[in-house]
Write a structure and sequence with these properties.
Chain B: InterPro entries: AA_ABC_transptr_permease_3TM, ArtM/GltK/GlnP/TcyL/YhdX-like, MetI-like, MetI-like_sf. The structure holds two protein chains of two kinds. By secondary structure, chain A is mainly α. Chain A has a single domain, classed as MetI-like (MetI-like fold). Chain A is built from 15 helices and no strands. The relative contact order of chain A is 0.09. Chain B has a domain at 72-141 and 253-385: MetI-like (MetI-like fold). Chain B has a four-stranded antiparallel β-sheet. A two-stranded antiparallel sheet of chain B has the order 4-5. Chain B is mostly helical. Classes of the chains: A mainly alpha, B mainly alpha. The interface between A and B is large, with 58 and 57 residues.
């Protein structure tokens, strides 16, 4: 041992530790998990104290002191009703149709409802892994459903469906439409881009790299602004683009770049031997990619795709900045209603939005985690 | 002999040539359409508009900016500096908070683990835009009304218009103070190098933390006191109550505070997840070996586990930093004058130079992304290079 390292070496023995006092039972569990030492014990007590304050407070606000019925902000003012007021659920109750459909004509609201039902069918078909005929489900969701949805929502006079201007769409409907367009357009585009990025042809490869890195390098807001002001400039003649379609184009391009990177991760995880084996069997490179590599790659990137979808769903809120009436924007419009001016209303509105987004994103994240565990279990066999 | 399985060479060439032609044709058509429409609207293409007078005011500025004399280029710079300021601070704060929460997710204490997990799930699963709206309302509700600001010794004021601090003016002799601070930073850098070299040679590390803090803070304080004694005190502009509002000083706006808090807490949730996966990637045996060497839990974490976890942490951390910078553009929602708000908002509306404004803004973000990626790649090479 050299002199230099001597500083690190202990010169005396550590006194032996006392035997553990208790190893099993609930008391030992509490001791090891909650009070292992003084500092941890103090932290435990502090967290317990704040929970003891927070939980009753939240319960009081959300349920006990909440106002459930009423026709105006008067019902949610403490000085009018004479006791402390929590959440003003009466406000949400009155505005719920506006939050769901925006200004979509009341007589035609069965159309968005049918749209939600058709979407639910397609989503369940894709998300339930043991569902029968999942290839048909994919064909339905990516080919049939978009056409149906467009005919249903925008209207098709030939079929007796009155046309509804996109300016009237709003709320949850627009949020779902934007997310759906994002996912339906970005998945095929993203797969193409990911394959192109791994191509042997330099022009294709560099075009794909440039495309992907460009969209990933700029914030979504600038993309939405660009779609808003520059898309109409690029089109010939007096061709204009619908106000709602502009951000949709921006979101689709933006999401496809992120999707491409997710798919590329899956492609890279497939051992090159798979491709070589397929070529050795006499498949062309195109056939090998389509029938051997891509199915395996797509299977393992399902969690990544769902995570991208969560990000996309949260990012759709940005379209409210360029003037599209998505869920957040109609919520802001609803809470600015002078008839419902009460201090509890904005808090209620934000709490409702938070609960809504949390429920959707959290359950999607749980689903991604479930798939991940299932895939890991499959690999472990 | 060419590989019989690969596509014939001529076909590859033809397909690529067609692709190039198609892309070029598309670009040409778009450019021609845009040029025609711009000409019809009477907009002169080019960046000449940057030299014209802007004529609008900006709420917060790191550089001298006056509505009367400033050009659009000045406005661009102010927006860029504001973006850099808020994203830089948010990156620092979110890293500190994110590491704390990520480490807490693997803490001994069950409640601490549960609290950290709840934090991550809540902040990660809500849109940033909604969080910013809530923080903005919360910050303004928590602050005193503008006509009755909280004041500390007539030097610091706090109201819904912002926090007003005294602003020292480091020109002329007073420039000694920042110079002294820079010298202290440089000396600390030398100290860190000396310490690293000592460790590499198997010697005891040179203490860095306290001497470093003394070196960075001591000389500027001495310079400040010395200047005051020598009869050239550092001029300080104090805020004062004006007829309508508090004037002068260094204002920190509530928009800035809300954006900074929102961005930091949101990014911290993602960084916590990155840190947790990094900690999980270090084998259990490392901790046990550290414990066997009688290192305490904190020492094991700092000296054994974290340095190894950094290899896994750094690459995703890089993209998270880029995300934070890009997410700072949500400032436009609550009115903090960042690059997007000032340039893509106000300047674009005033000048209608859509192509130039969009191009310039996107180029800024692209080069920020590129610069961060390059810096982090260098750091990553160093961290990964320590692999044995």
């Amino acid at each position: 041992m050299s002199l230099e390292t001597e500083g690190y070496v202990r010169k005396t023995l550590i006194p032996p530790a006392p035997p553990p006092r208790r190893l099993g039972g609930p008391l030992a569990w509490v001791r090891t998990n909650l009070f292992p030492d003084l500092a941890n014990g103090l932290v435990t007590l502090a967290i317990l104290a704040s929970l003891a304050w927070l939980v009753p407070e939240a319960l009081r606000f959300l349920v006990l002191d909440a106002v459930w019925t009423g026709t105006s902000g008067e019902a949610c003012r403490p000085e009018v009703v004479g006791h402390p007021v929590g959440a003003c659920w009466a406000f949400i109750g009155e505005k719920i149709n506006y939050l769901a459909y925006g200004s979509y004509p009341a007589a035609e609201r069965w159309r968005p409802n049918l749209f939600f039902a058709l979407l639910g069918l397609g989503a369940a078909w894709m998300l339930w892994l043991d569902a029968p005929k999942r290839a048909w489900g994919a064909a339905y969701l990516f080919l049939v459903f978009p056409v149906l949805a467009y005919a249903l929502l925008a209207g098709m006079p030939a079929l007796g469906l009155a046309s509804v201007a996109t300016g009237l769409w709003g709320g949850l409907l627009v949020t779902v439409v934007v997310s759906m367009v994002g996912i339906v357009a970005s998945l095929p585009l993203g797969i193409l881009l990911a394959l192109g990025r791994r191509s042997d042809w330099p022009v294709v490869r560099y075009a794909c790299i440039g495309f992907i890195e460009f969209w990933r390098g700029v914030p979504l807001i600038t993309v939405l602004f660009m779609a808003n002001v520059m898309l109409p400039l690029f089109l010939p003649g007096d061709l204009t683009v619908d106000r709602l379609v502009r951000p949709l184009v921006g979101i689709a391009l933006f999401a496809s770049a992120y999707m491409a990177e997710v798919v590329r991760g899956g492609l890279q995880a497939i051992p090159p031997g798979q491709m070589r084996a397929a070529l050795a069997l006499g498949l062309t490179p195109l056939q090998a990619t389509r029938a051997v590599v891509l199915p395996q790659a797509l299977k393992i990137v399902v969690p990544g795709i769902v995570n991208t979808l969560i990000g996309l769903f949260k990012d759709t809120t940005l379209v409210s900045i360029v003037g599209i009436a998505d869920f957040i924007r109609v919520l802001e419009a609803a809470r600015a209603d002078p008839r419902w001016s009460a201090p509890a209303v904005p808090v209620t509105a934000y709490a409702f939005a938070a609960l809504f987004y949390f429920a959707v994103c959290f359950s999607m994240a749980r689903y991604a985690g479930f798939i991940e565990r299932r895939l890991a279990a499959g690999d472990a066999r | 002999m060419p590989d019989p399985r690969s596509t014939p060479r001529w076909r590859a060439l033809v397909v690529q040539a067609v692709l190039v032609l198609a892309l070029a044709g598309l670009a040409y058509l778009a450019a021609a359409n845009a040029a025609q429409k711009l000409a019809r609207q009477g907009i002169v293409a080019g960046f000449g508009f940057l030299g014209r007078a802007a004529g609008f005011d900006i709420g917060q500025s790191l550089m001298p900016y006056a509505a009367a004399t400033a050009t659009y280029f000045d406005a661009f710079l102010v927006g860029l500096l504001n973006t850099l300021l808020v994203s830089g601070l948010a990156i620092v704060l979110s890293t500190a908070l994110g590491f704390a929460i990520g480490i807490a997710r693997r803490a001994e204490n069950l409640l601490v683990r549960a609290f950290a997990a709840a934090y991550v799930e809540v902040f990660r699963n809500l849109p940033l835009l909604l969080q910013l709206l809530v923080w903005y309302v919360a910050v303004r509700v928590a602050l005193p009304a503008p006509d009755d600001p909280a004041a500390w010794g007539q030097a610091v004021f706090l109201s819904q218009r912002g926090l007003f601090l005294p602003r020292p003016d480091f020109w002329g002799f007073a420039a000694l103070v920042p110079l002294a601070c820079a010298a202290g930073l440089f000396a600390t850098g030398l100290l860190i190098r000396a310490s690293r070299r000592a460790v590499a040679l198997g010697q005891k590390p040179v203490p860095v933390l306290w001497p470093g803090a003394l070196l960075v803070l001591g000389p500027p304080a001495l310079a400040w006191a010395g200047l005051a004694l020598a009869g050239h005190p550092v001029p300080v502009a104090y805020p004062a109550r004006g007829p309508f509002d508090i004037e002068g000083g260094l204002p920190v706006r509530p928009e800035f505070a809300a954006l900074l808090i929102g961005l930091s807490t949101y990014s911290a949730a993602f960084i916590a997840e990155i840190v947790r996966s990094g900690l999980d990637s270090v084998g259990r045996g490392q901790r046990e070996a550290a414990a066997a060497l009688s290192l305490s839990g904190a020492q094991a974490l700092r000296l054994v586990v974290l340095p190894q976890a950094m290899r896994v942490i750094v690459p995703p951390l890089t993209s998270q930093y880029l995300n934070t910078t890009k997410n700072s553009s949500l400032a436009v929602l609550i009115g903090y004058p960042d690059l997007v708000h000032v340039f893509m908002g106000t300047v674009l509306n005033q000048t209608n130079q859509a192509v130039e404004v969009v191009t310039l803004t996107m180029c800024v973000y692209l080069s920020l992304s590129l610069a961060t990626a390059l810096l982090m790649n260098r750091y990553n090479a160093r961290v990964a290079g320590a692999r044995r």
